[in-house]
Design brief:
By secondary structure, this protein is of the alpha+beta class. The chain is built from 11 helices and 5 strands. Strands 1, 2, 3, 4 and 5 form a 5-stranded antiparallel β-sheet that branches. The chain is rod-shaped, with a radius of gyration of 46 Å.
């Protein structure tokens, strides 16, 4: 129970087991936060530590079928891990599980299971550091797999950063688009109002109307003074008095018509049936307020969009390697003395357990 398993294991390890070379790589997810322009003027920048959530995702990704499929498409992992031949070393080489044959290629599930044997991932949750040990039957193959793992991990982090930026900007972009459409609609309505009534600014028109009435009132005052002076120096049949009275009547009628334009519409005496300036001004002010509100909403939405873009640029993630992929100069695996020692120890423990159980049964008899 001890000597035979130990002998078989030693024979296999030193005669059949192929040498394996290890390549080591270590990295972490870093998040760089670029400060605002005011802070940059003061020379303040910030480099945050690793992002735990992104590191957790990357840790799971390194053990998933997705990365196995990607790297296998580039390097052909089945070929790399079956180089010594499954007939020569069926324990440590890749081969699809079968009772009768070792014919490749096998399924992705089989390859993923072998991946977990050849690629060991060590994750320190406290520091956020990830270290990997990659085994292959040649130093170049182990180094190539380690480099490809680092490249695929960088792509995954870039994808996560792109998704985070898109999530942060999507809502701000939707609000900005709605604000733009609202502003276009309000401006279109105001333009139609101006085209319909042929008035660019009713307030300016009203001011001009008030100025015209003021001028007419001044003219009326002058005409009344002139009439008083004529009545004091001329007879009642003087044509100048009749002309002055006619002039006063015309001015009063014009003042009355101009005042009606500032009234409440056709009912107030607008003979042309046009809307009064007061009503036009009320409609214009309503449309102007709607346009101003749309413009303010647009400015706020644009500011929020710019802030979302700046925030997305500030929170950029990247993969920082503290150990670049190494190239082995000698074979370290399989660790033959260690594995033989484990087989001897477990065989001895099993034998000791069986002996103790057998003596216990004999003592009961």
């Amino acid at each position: 129970m001890v000597i035979l398993p130990s002998a078989v294991t030693g024979w296999y390890l030193w005669t059949r087991a192929a040498d394996q070379y290890a390549s080591y790589v270590g990295f972490s997810v870093r998040k760089e936060e670029v400060s605002s322009a005011v802070e940059l003027l003061g020379g303040i920048t910030e480099l945050s530590g690793s992002s735990s959530s992104d590191t957790d995702i990357l840790y799971k990704f390194l053990q998933s079928q997705e990365i196995v499929r990607r790297i296998d498409a580039v390097l052909d992992l089945r070929e790399i891990w079956s180089k010594p031949g499954p007939h020569q070393d069926p324990v440590f080489t890749y081969h699809p599980p079968s009772l009768f044959t070792y014919e490749p290629p096998g399924t992705i599930e089989d390859l993923t299971e072998h991946w977990l044997r050849k690629v060991k991932v060590y994750y320190d949750e406290g520091s956020g550091l990830i270290d990997l040990r990659v085994l292959a039957f040649t130093p170049d193959d182990a180094h190539a797999i380690a480099e490809e793992i680092f490249d695929e991990s960088s792509k995954k982090i870039n994808d996560l950063s792109a998704i985070a930026r898109e999530d942060a900007m999507r809502y701000a972009r939707d609000e900005l688009e709605e604000a733009v459409e609202r502003l276009k609609e309000k401006r279109r309505i105001l333009t139609e109002f101006r085209n319909t009534y042929r008035i660019v600014d009713p307030e300016a028109s009203i001011q001009g109307q008030v100025g015209l009435i003021t001028t007419l009132q001044n003219e009326l005052a002058s005409a009344l003074i002139e009439l008083d002076m004529l009545q004091g120096s001329a007879s009642s049949n003087d044509p100048r008095i009749q002309q002055a009275r006619r002039r006063i009547e015309v001015i009063e009628n014009r003042i009355d018509q101009e005042r009606r334009k500032l009234g409440n519409g056709p009912a107030a005496g607008n003979d042309n049936g046009e809307e009064a300036y007061a009503e036009l001004l009320g409609t214009y002010e309503t449309l102007a307020v709607d346009r101003q509100f749309a413009e303010e909403s647009y400015r706020l939405a644009l500011s929020a969009y710019d802030a979302a873009q700046a925030e997305a640029r500030r929170q950029s993630r990247y993969l920082a390697a503290h150990i670049t992929p190494t190239i082995a100069q000698k074979s370290e695996f399989p660790d033959r003395p260690l594995q033989l020692s484990l087989v001897v120890i477990f065989s001895f423990l099993l034998w000791a357990t069986v002996v103790l159980v057998s003596y216990s049964l004999k003592d009961r008899r």
